[in-house]
Amino acid sequence: MPNETSSATIIDGKARSEAVMNELAPRAKSLIERGVNPHLTVILVGDDPASRVYVKSKVKACQALGVRSTVATLPADTPESALLDKIDQLNNDDSVHAILVQLPLPEGFDERRIVQRVAPGKDVDVFHPLNAGKLLLGAPGFEPCTPKGIMALLDGIGYDPAGKNAVVVGRSNIVGKPITLMLLRRNATVTICHSRTPDLGAATRQADLLIAAVGKAGLITGDMIKPGAVVIDVGVNRVEGSKKLRGDVDFDSAVKVAGAITPVPGGVGPMTIAMLMLNTLEAAESC
Ligand code: NDP
């Protein structure tokens, strides 16, 4: 059993994502050779600095694979109807295979209405009800990038969720709910916790596999983790007054208890981008 001096295996998301990108390179190449030039368009509304950084990394990943990327930048005061028109235009543009609306949108936009406007075949974030429904039913289709990245990380360390107690903290449509479905499909017993869970620690201490997707720096501390558990930290929280990022898991205390843990940065983040590339190629392959 781990003690104060033991330390978890650090799950290297950067290295794993590089391996995925290497696997994707020949797929991108063969599409291009067939005359299909995979093309991701990211719609960025407003001037959120964090969003700009995320978009930049997505563009960089496209460049690494020779995949075409376009960033459609719109001012924060764009009328919602104009944003919907832009999405319609991209939906109808045969040269665009994948569309992603960078979130969060500025105040005032009906986020759900907008993300659901993306045509199902180009919806690499899996927000369209048709794609979300397929995920629920276990039918073939896109899987959302962050949960897909988490599953790839688990597969990368040879971790089989079957029969394990998985606890997911957070129930968002982009992370918490889809990772729950995907773990269920892989035969884990899954508990979902959220802001109304009365005793979070009591739940998380049962977890063989703990996924934290909350958006609260250091919420999960070492004493809330079962010794030897695999801990996946999805959270990306900016430390006030610095450029540093922190996860939802208090790394220093967690690393002494967990069996394996993802760091922030360098864990789930790079995998999300690699999976966006995979979804973009899948969209282009099926066009
Ligand atoms: P949301 O804000 O959509 O969801 C947060 C969830 O956490 C909600 O379900 C909320 O519960 C729950 N929650 C809030 N406070 C608590 C608490 N004290 N105890 C238990 N649960 C709580 O966030 P996202 O899912 O979009 O993102 C979560 C984090 O992951 C963020 O830091 C985000 O930046 C990061 N992220 C990282 C990505 C990556 O690639 N690395 C990709 C996507 C997200 P309730 O539903 O009751 O409000």
Characterization of the model:
With 287 residues, the chain is of the alpha/beta class. It has two domains: 34-119, Leucine Dehydrogenase, chain A, domain 1 (Rossmann fold), CATH 3.40.50; 144-269, Rossmann fold (3-Layer(aba) Sandwich). Helix content is 39%, strand content 15%. The protein is built from ten helices and eleven strands. It has helices spanning 13-33, 49-65, 80-91, 111-115, 129-137, 145-156, 176-185, 200-204, 251-254, 268-285, and strands at 9-10, 39-45, 68-74, 98-101, 165-169, 189-193, 209-212, 230-233, 237-238, 245-246, 260-261. The protein has a six-stranded parallel beta sheet with strand order 1-11-8-7-5-6. The chain has a three-stranded parallel beta sheet with strand order 3-2-4, with helices on both faces. Helix 2 (49-65) links the parallel strand 2 and strand 3 (68-74). Helix 1 runs parallel beside helix 10, helix 2 packs across helix 10 (268-285) and helix 6 (145-156) crosses helix 7. It is globular, with a radius of gyration of 19 Å. It starts with 8 loop residues before the first strand and ends with a helix. The model has no long low-confidence stretch (mean pLDDT 96). The structure holds NADPH dihydro-nicotinamide-adenine-dinucleotide phosphate. NADPH dihydro-nicotinamide-adenine-dinucleotide phosphate is lined by residues 146, 169-172, 174-176, 193-197, 200, 213-216, 219, 234-237, 268-269, 272.
